[in-house]
């Protein structure tokens, strides 16, 4: 039976995106600045054309997050369905919940301690730096062609495939959930949460002080810890470990029981 999308999860992913927007300035900011420089400017402020282009960029970025989240959720669902047929469904879900939860909690603790590299799940830290450098190169080479056309959405879409210590823990979470719809909507919520910071960066602000970014990262770490505890405790419960459960309003943990 499909698990309904939990409003609590959606809210947490949106908060992660909102707080992680400060981090996105370091990852996405250079590309935003690059394509923004290609647009016609107006001394009176951003034009409707600029606003449209930034909106398309962020729409493409968010849509690609949702697509990858949905596909990973589908992959997880396929694995869980096979495990259920083999009579080990709860065991597999339990192990997956513990692993996913522990990884996400580790990322959160690293951010709270100000050590972002601790528990990083970005592909660059897993040996995929060359591939993702080429993806970034493709994005940069297309800036001149796409910056002033609707194809700027494709520049945003590429960001789902760039190394990001904010995004990839969320992808792992979507995989572990085994819920395609929830995976897509949760990642979409994260993408929407990052939009205000990047949108303002591209049109008005241009920068965020380092001290404020550091503070946001620590609060983001707390959100990651709380998010990771949901599958971690549920996974331990499926494995028969007596642990206290977080009573979160409207949170429906994944289950193989109809």
UniProtKB/TrEMBL annotation:
Keyword Oxidoreductase assigned: no
Positions of transmembrane segments: 12-36, 62-83, 95-113, 152-175, 187-208, 220-241
Name by which UniProt lists this protein: Urease accessory protein UreH-like transmembrane domain-containing protein
Domain of life, per lineage: Archaea
Signal peptide from the UniProt entry: none
Native source species: Halarchaeum grantii
Ranges of residues in domain Urease accessory protein UreH-like transmembrane: 13-229
Keyword Transport: no
This protein's UniProt keywords: Membrane, Transmembrane, Transmembrane helix
